[in-house]
Structure formats: structure tokens, C-alpha cells
Amino acid sequence: DPDGKLQEFEAVPPQVEVAAPPSGMFDWARLFQSAGLDQSRFQPADAQWTPLANWDTRAAWTGADPQTGAKLRVEAAAWRGWPVSFRIVGPWTVPARMEPPGSRQNPIALLAIFYLALVAACLLAWYNFRARRVDQCGALRMSAWLFVCEVASLFLNMHHSATMQELSGFWQVVAGATLDAGIVWVAYLALEPWVRRRWPHTMISWTRYTTRGIRDPLVGRDLLYGAGCGALWSVLFVLETGLHGGQPSFPSLNALLGVRYEVAQMLNAVPDAIISSMIFFLMLFLLRVLLRNQWIAAAALVAIMSIIPAIGSATPWVDMLGRALYCGVLAFVLLRFGLLAAIAAYSSFDLLATCPPTLDLSAWYIGLVPIPLLAVAAMAIYGFRTSLAGRPLFQISGE
Questions:
Q1: Which of 74, 138, 156, 356 is 20 to 30 A distant from 292 in Cα terms?
Q2: Could you give the CA distance from residue 218 to residue 47 in angstroms, rounded to a whole number?
Q3: CA–CA separation, 61 vs 79, rounded Å?
Q4: 99-103, 303-307, 384-388 — which one is most confidently predicted on average?
Q5: How many CA atoms lie within 13 A of 153 on its CB side?
């Protein structure tokens, strides 16, 4: 209602800032220490990077990273004695607000691949549905997992308030999760009948889960292999970071906001893994139909997913190699163990990336670090125990 909104805005008094007395200079050594830098090794310099937040004091320093020797610039800003910006600028840092047009990576090719795969999935799903050869139970089970985990993650991340914005946020969460669940449902209906005929082994463990439950030994086996491959991905990620030649690769920092946000990010690993695995599986299957050989199709998909994102990158060969390793492991897991193992592997990798790793026991966020590690370890232990199918772990010979 336009009149109601006008009255609502008029009822809010204007926000007028009251002049505050001058405050002292902030002690930047505290932020240097938190960033793992020694301020004594840096020399004062003129500030060059304009912060987004309001400020009344700016400072800058130049120096070298004691570990890698890379030249660093530290830019800081404060407002009335409180820090509002602290930025470490390296040779790899690009001023995003000053990039010339066309200098960023062009996502058009990846978007085109995604939409073509989605259109193909819709046509295949409609054909399979009309032919009455779809696995409705498996599709609904996978969509339900995605919907529940995504809704829970988004609600934990959402800012809650006793206003009408709460209702708006609720419908945005439900609508987004429903759309993603619908995409997965369509992709499953499009893939499952064809995959069951050509690659039946890739769907066996998921079918066992939908019919026999999570205690099936084959399901446990794939959870165990998935957790191991996810840990391998994490090692490859560390190696890729080292190959960048000093350029850091920052993990997600959402977990540092608290336990609620870390749990939300951990829950988001499940829908992330399901969507990514299904899209990758769909493109792999379409290439298999086109190229007539599953390993040639896997190599072609790995090449496509490695070369296109590396175009325009500052370190194209390193990014290409890293993506080739990631996609190669995912393709191997899909073709060798199946869809359930691929989802478990992707989820494990996402879980291990939810919190910045550290060996410093005095770090203030050290209590958050073990949570994702324990989650992946629990998946691996449960998978191992279930895969034994009731057999004892140790058996004395002769019994």
C-alpha cells in the first residue's frame, strides 16, 4: 500500500549524527598481530586504497612477507578511534572497483553450458516421465535432502527480526530451496533411466539407500570412499595454493561469525554437493552419448571444466592444473564408485573448507576448527563400520 508505506516512513525520525569528541589513534599493532605480521618490519607509506566504510583516519605501510618474501602493502582506516578497514595488498591483488571492462573472467561460456545442460535435462525428464520409466522415489528422496538442508542453512544465516521482513525472508528461503530441489528432481528423472541401462553400477548404492536405508553395507562403502576422496581434494587444494607462488587462497570466513554460521555452512555442503554432482554427472553422460566412450567423455569434460574458468586468470596454468585434478577426481569417483560416493566426496570437501585451518592452539577461533573435521571423521567411521556388514573388526584365526 503506497499510503501505508508513506506513513511508515514519516513515522521514523530522521537519523542525525551528533558530534562526538575527538578520540585517540587506534593501536594498529593489535591488528598486525592478529594478521600474523610484525609491524616493526613495515615502513609507513602514503595510503592509496580507498575503503568502502566511512573514515576519518587512514594509514598505510609497506614491507615484505617474512615467509614468502612477497612485497606487501597494508592499508588501514579508522572512524573515531575504531578500525573500519584493514587490508593486506599483495602483488596478486586487483582493485576490483577499477578493473577495465572485460578484464574479469568471462562466465558466459560456463553459463551457456549450464543452461544447455538444463534444457537437455528438461527434455529427457519429460520423455522418461511420459514413458513411465522414472524412479520417483529416488528423485523425491534426493530433492527432499536438498530442500531440508538448504532451508535449514538459509534460516540459520538469515537475520531474524519481529517485523514483516521476517515473512519476506521466509518466502525467499522457501522459494530458493524449492527451485534448487526442482532442478535436482528434473536432472534425476532425466539421468536415472539412461544411466541404469548404460552405467548401472553408478546408481546401485543410491538405489540401495532409497530401498534399504543408510545401514546397507554398499552405502557405507561409498560414504567411506567419499570421505577419503574429499580429504584428498583438500590436500590438492593446499598444493594448488602453494603453486600460486605466494598468492594466498583464503578459505571461507563465515564460520568466524560464530557456531550458528558454521553449522549453516556445514548444512549447505549437502545441497552444494548434490547440485554440483548432478550437473557434472549430466554433462558427463551427454558427452558419453556423443563420444561413445566413457573415459574419452570424462577427459573431454575435465578439459572443458579446466580450460574455460582459467581464461583471464592471473595464473592460468596453475588454475588449469588445479581444476583438472579436482574434476579428474570427481569423474573417477562417479565412474568407479557412483553418484552417492561423489556426493559424499563433494560434501566432505565442503565441510573441510568451512573453517580456516590452524595449528595455533591460542587462536580465538580454535574451538570451531574441530567441528567440520569431526563431521568428516564421523562419516568415514560410520561408513567403515557399516561396510563390514556386521562382521567383527578383528577376528582371531581359528575361531
A1: 138
A2: 60
A3: 18
A4: 384-388
A5: 21
Distance between CA 268 and CA 276 in Å, rounded? 12
Task: Name 96's Cβ contacts closer than 8 Å, sequence gap at least 6.
Answer: none
Query: Cα–Cα distance between 26 and 24 in angstroms, integer?
Result: 6
The torsion of the CA quartet 151, 156, 159, 164, rounded to 10 degrees, works out to 40
Mean pLDDT of the chain: 81
Q: Which three cell numbers stand for residue 92?
A: 596478486
Q: Given CA atoms 173, 357, 361, 248 in this order, what sign does their dihedral have?
A: negative
Cell digits of residue 57: 583516519
- pLDDT tier at 366 (50, 70, 90 boundaries)? confident
CA pair distance 326, 232, nearest whole angstrom: 9
d(C-alpha 330, C-alpha 343), whole Å: 9
Chain length of the chain? 399
* 144 has a pLDDT exceeding 90: yes
**Which three cell numbers, joined as nine digits, stand for 126?**
519429460
User: Given this model, what pLDDT does residue 354 score?
Assistant: 76
Give strand pairing partners of 86: 76
Any idea which residue has 545401514 for its cell?
215
At residue 186, φ and ψ (nearest 5 deg) are -65, -45
pTM (2 decimals)? 0.75
The CA-based dihedral angle spanning residues 149, 150, 151, 157, taken in that order and rounded to the nearest 10 degrees = 110
* Sign of the alpha-carbon dihedral angle for 319, 380, 260, 270: positive
pLDDT score at 381: 93
Question: Rg of the Cα trace of the chain?
Answer: 25
Half-sphere exposure of 188 (CA within 13 A, CB side): 25
CA dist., res. 337 & res. 261, Å (int): 32
Distance between CA atoms of 133 and 135, rounded to whole angstroms? Answer: 7
In angstroms, the Cα distances linking 200 to 189, 203, 205, 207, 327 are 15, 6, 10, 10, 21
pLDDT at 95 over 50: yes
Look up cell 580465538; give the residue. Answer: 364
DSSP of 115-148: HHHHHHHHHHHHHHHHTT---HHHHHHHHHHHHH
Count CB neighbours of 324 within 10 A: 17
